[in-house]
TrEMBL record:
It comes from Micromonospora sediminimaris. The chain crosses the membrane at residues 290-310. Keywords: Membrane, Signal, Transmembrane, Transmembrane helix. This is DUF916 domain-containing protein. Residues 1-21 form the signal peptide.
Length: 340
């Protein structure tokens, strides 16, 4: 069974281990002459327009694919060919292991010639074989292929490579599971007592499934024992099986009136392939934090102090007025008595 999968990253291009996300040509100077080349998926006749190769294969399947190496330089070049396991960098960009790192997964399924010689201004199509182990576990096994040139100038050799993704999925039960952990909540108040604050949170998203997945997440912060609350959406970036990444989110409009109950829920989505029949496993995590409404408390104390002062002054004025009235009455009575 072979199916093309619609969504994966773009062609990878690396200078040493730097990866780009679109097909480009890379230049290097292995022997003093500038070499510019590109690598693309192909069929037996030449580049076929694909940006990467993706297949869903049954265990034990053997498949022949092709790559095209294009030499834009003015002299023939010998390129080293490499297949290796693929991974995502911390910034979410696809890359493949370097020649000094051992592949243990999809990179070992690919067999291709060690080198290829491409004439000046020429394109050479290179067939390679994908062999799925009979005991391959269901799910994604990302890999990449690249053509490499090593620069000999200076005291440090620099390996420049150009390649693309080869995304391989072994058929079987597809499980999309993104676990959420290490939830940390921080309340950032506004010192304006008439303006609410924000809740900032971070959590770790871990792909515990067997296929690449993203996550549609929601965050809810409840206060006043659940009588009030606000919600916000958050997204988990693409994660390959076994990958983990820290995710940040924030929820505005929170007054911080005591206990804050923060709940994060993530529903994974299969990045590519047919999600029909996939085992989708949502995850929910809840933590409780406390926040005191200091601006409102300060405002309340000030208002209370002003009211108490106003009441005290009013009482004193009333008492003084009463004394003056009583004094006036007494003087009036005394004047009447003297007249009599």
């Amino acid at each position: 069974m072979i199916r093309f999968l619609p969504r994966w990253g773009a062609v990878l291009v690396a200078m040493s281990t730097i990866v780009l996300s679109a097909p480009v040509a890379v230049s290097a100077e292995p022997t003093g002459a500038t070499v510019t080349w590109a690598v693309q998926p192909a069929d037996a006749r030449g580049p076929d327009g694909r940006r990467w190769i993706e297949h869903t294969l049954d265990p034990g399947t053997v498949l022949t694919e092709h790559l095209a190496v294009r030499n834009f330089g003015d002299a023939p070049v010998v390129f080293a060919l490499q297949a290796a396991d693929g991974y995502l960098t911390d910034k979410g960009r696809f890359n493949m292991l370097t020649s000094g790192q051992e592949s243990v997964d999809g990179g070992t399924w690919i067999t291709l010639p060690e080198t290829v010689t491409v004439g000046a201004k020429q394109t050479t199509v290179v067939p390679f074989t994908i062999t799925v182990p009979p005991d391959a576990t269901p799910g994604d096994h990302p890999a990449g292929v690249a053509a490499t040139v090593t620069s000999a100038g200076g005291t440090v050799a620099v390996q420049s490579r150009v390649g693309f993704r080869v995304m391989l999925r072994a058929s079987g039960t597809v499980t999309a599971a993104v676990a959420v952990g290490d939830l940390s909540v921080r309340y950032e108040r506004s010192w304006n007592p008439f303006s609410p604050g924000d809740v900032h949170l971070t959590f770790t998203a871990q792909n515990n499934g067997n296929v690449a997945a993203t996550g549609d997440g929601s965050v809810r912060v409840g206060e006043l024992f659940g009588l009030a609350g606000r919600s916000a959406a958050t997204d988990v970036p693409e994660l390959l099986p076994g990958d983990g990444r820290q995710v940040e989110a924030h929820v505005g409009g929170i007054w911080g009136l005591g206990r804050l109950t923060t709940t994060v829920e993530v529903t994974p989505t299969v990045v590519s392939g047919d999600p029909g029949g996939a085992d989708i496993r949502p995850t929910t995590i809840t933590v409780t934090a406390w926040a005191l409404p200091w601006p409102q408390l300060v405002l309340g104390v000030l208002v209370g102090t002003l009211l108490l002062g106003w009441r005290t002054i009013s009482r004193r004025r009333r008492r003084k007025l009463a004394r003056l009235l009583e004094q006036a009455r007494a003087e009036g009575r005394e004047s009447v008595r003297v007249a009599d």
